[in-house]
C-alpha cells in the first residue's frame, strides 16, 4: 500500500496543491461576500437573494469539494513513506493551522445559513476581521511545509 502511494506521489501532490488553491480562493472570497451582503442589502430584497445564491454555490460547488480534496490528498501524502517526520515541529504547526482552517470553513457554513434564514447578526467590520484569519493560517501552513523546521 505504501509502495503504491510512493508511485502516486507526484500526482497526489499535484492534486493536493490544486485542491488547496480552490479551497483558499473560496475561503478568502466568502467572507468578502458576507461583508457586502451585510452592508449593501436588507433581508428579503432582490439583492439579498442574489448574494444568497452566490454564497450557496461558492460553498457547495467549490469550497466543500475543494476542502474534501485537500484532506484526501493531504492524508495520502501523510501516509506516503518518508514524507512526514513527526519528531520535527513543522507537521504539528501545519496540522494545528489546518484544523483551525477547517473549523473556519464550518463557521462560514453556519453564517451562510444565518443569511439564508434572514438572521445574520454580525457586522461587516466583524466579517472583515474574521477575513484575516485564513491569511494568517495560510502563511503558517506554507512556511511549515516549505521551510520544514
Ligand atoms: C487538510 C489537511 C492537509 C494535510 C493532511 C496536508 C498534508 C501535506 C503533506 C504531508 C505534505 C508534504 C508533501 C511533500 O513533502 O512533498 C503537503 C504538502 C503541501 N501542502 Fe498540505 N496538507 C493539508 C492541507 C493544506 C493546506 C490547507 C494548505 C495551504 C493553505 C497546504 C499546502 C501545501 C503545500 C503548498 C504543499 C507542497 C509543499 C512542497 O512542495 O514541499 N496543505 N501537505
TrEMBL record:
Lineage of origin: Bacteria, Pseudomonadati, Pseudomonadota, Alphaproteobacteria, Rhodobacterales
- What InterPro entries does the record point to? HemJ-like
EC number(s) of the enzyme? 1.3.99.-
Q: So what does this one do?
A: Catalyzes the oxidation of protoporphyrinogen IX to protoporphyrin IX.
Q: Where does heme bind?
A: 16, 94
What is the recorded membrane topology of this protein?
A: Multi-pass membrane protein
Which keywords annotate this record? Cell membrane, Heme, Iron, Membrane, Metal-binding, Oxidoreductase, Transmembrane, Transmembrane helix
Where in or outside the cell is it found? Cell membrane
Q: Please give the family membership noted in the entry.
A: Belongs to the HemJ family.
Does the keyword Hydrolase feature in the UniProt annotation? no
Q: What does it catalyze? A: protoporphyrinogen IX + 3 A = protoporphyrin IX + 3 AH2
Q: Which cofactor does it need?
A: heme b
Q: Transmembrane: is it a keyword of this entry? A: yes
The organism of origin for this protein: Pseudooceanicola nanhaiensis
Q: Which residues cross the membrane?
A: 14-35, 61-83, 89-108, 129-147
Biological or metabolic pathway of the protein:
Porphyrin-containing compound metabolism; protoporphyrin-IX biosynthesis; protoporphyrin-IX from protoporphyrinogen-IX: step 1/1
What does the entry's cofactor note say about binding and number? Binds 1 heme b (iron(II)-protoporphyrin IX) group per subunit.
One GO molecular-function entry: protoporphyrinogen oxidase activity
Protein name according to UniProt? Protoporphyrinogen IX oxidase
Q: Where's it mainly located?
A: membrane
